């Protein structure tokens, strides 16, 4: 049962990451607006899209789940910080949906990473 739950969480995170790619890669006006406002248009938009694509693939492969979850935490953590510092919770009258999606994705990635903690590489003290 625990493995099925983790699989559902992984698929959910991957779907969330993948569904945003069409906006980033097609230069949707909302995506261009967001990345322009944070000073990362167009290279940031495309780079973040590529990183999210890689994270969504890695989180679905059993041996690389932890890498995908960690990568997702980094990217989505950056998005949350941008919302809180520059963009605001509500962007283009979305009633905070984009921010809420980022927070949910961040929390799910923490749960996935915690469940996969046994796969994290061990760091030897010298």
Describe this structure in words.
The chain has 126 residues and is mainly α. The protein has one domain (2-118). Helix content is 72%, strand content 0%. It contains 5 helices and no strands. It has helices spanning 2-25, 29-37, 43-58, 65-87, 97-115. Helix 1 (2-25) packs across helix 5 (97-115). The radius of gyration is 15 Å and the shape is globular. The model has no long low-confidence stretch (mean pLDDT 94).
Task: Summarize the structure in short.
This protein has 126 residues and is mainly α. It has one domain (2-118).
List keywords for this structure.
single chain; 126 residues; mainly alpha; 5 helices; 72% helix; globular; DoxX; membrane; transmembrane; DoxX family protein
Could you say how many structural domains there are in total? 1
Beta content: under 5%
Order of helices and strands: HHHHH
| Gross geometry | globular
Taking all residues together, what is the mean pLDDT?
Answer: 94
- The total count of strands amounts to 0
Helix content: over 70%
Counting H and I runs of at least 4 residues, what is the number of helices? Answer: 5
N- to C-terminal distance: 39 Å
- Low-pLDDT stretches: none
Report the major sheet. none
Give the structural class: mainly alpha
Structural Rg: 15 Å
